[in-house]
Amino acid sequence: MFSRKFIAAAAIVLVAAAAALAGCGQGAIVGSERRPVRISVGSYNLNNLPFFVADANGYFAEAGVHVRTENFAQGGSKVLQALVAGSTDVAVGFYDHTIQMQAKHKEVSAFVLLSRNSGLVLAGRNDTRFDPKQPQSIGGLKIGITAPGSSSDFFVRHFLSRHGIDENAVSIIGVGSGAAAVAALQQGKVDLLVNYDPAATLIESRGIGRILIDARSDEGARAVYGGLYPTSVLYAQSGFLQEHPQVAERIARAQLKALRFIESTPPEQIVAALPDRYVSGDRAAYAQAVARAKAIFSRDGRFVAADLQTPLAVLREFDRSVAGAKIDLDKTYTNRFVDDALAASSR
Description:
Layout: H1 4-25, E1 29-30, E2 33-34, E3 37-41, H2 49-56, H3 59-62, E4 67-71, H4 76-85, E5 90-94, H5 96-103, E6 108-113, E7 121-125, E8 142-145, H6 151-162, E9 171-174, H7 178-186, E10 192-195, H8 199-205, E11 209-214, H9 218-225, E12 232-237, H10 238-243, H11 245-264, H12 267-272, H13 283-293, H14 309-318, H15 320-323, H16 336-345
Pfam families: NMT1
Domain Solute-binding protein family 3/N-terminal: 38-262
Family: Belongs to the bacterial solute-binding protein SsuA/TauA family.
């Protein structure tokens, strides 16, 4: 027979142990099961680099959240489908998809900003007949994008709409990103390519072609879109964020550490920290791409309300569901979890 003191002491130990487990594992509790948080990413383009850094450097585990990642490598539209279908918890994709979802009466909210600007380019082979100063010269050409419904697709449709060119005047073809996209241009499967770094840098460094429209800089984005175009974010269904605020805060904490790492670390060292699966082409060329892309990354993970007007305006040009809907941008994003993470790090 155990004494009352022994039973009381044992109870205290068990309660303390349970509390400790809950504290260190809340990031992995989803629904009624203890399982990893599923995070899916649409491509290996450099706009998503802060996520790759956080994953490679173990920042999620440091923040107390166990994640399982999946890369569709077919564009953000596939990730969006997975999120809506419930086969992933968090998406690494582009902010403009949250606007489209609101137009379809689905509550999806971005909660960490990774890339504050587009990063997209339009490239052609060296012998291309397309001249951006003569927009109509794009007629009859095959244009490669990451995937239908992706932001690279929006880039093309925005260009056509802006210049009064019918969408049927061109062929838009999904070719993926990175080395696969570069190969599609090089092999003549497409005449033009709308893509991100590292594809843009690989095209130039290998002499395959040249950049004809460049939205990587703030100036370039304003020329293309009329303003900055926030792109890569972490987003989730609003219900998930409401049910798992501590998970969202810990994910934000990991991403903020990654953003600080990118800002303070030379490109070669950033690339050295990445496993091969995240690097397209040789590491030297990839480091060049990182150097060129550094300006697009957020420094604090927070959304700037004024910048969100740009993707809304672009989508309204060709997306009928968005054009005909009353969009409340305040419901497409939140700075709550980043602010919580910033407050926690300052204590």
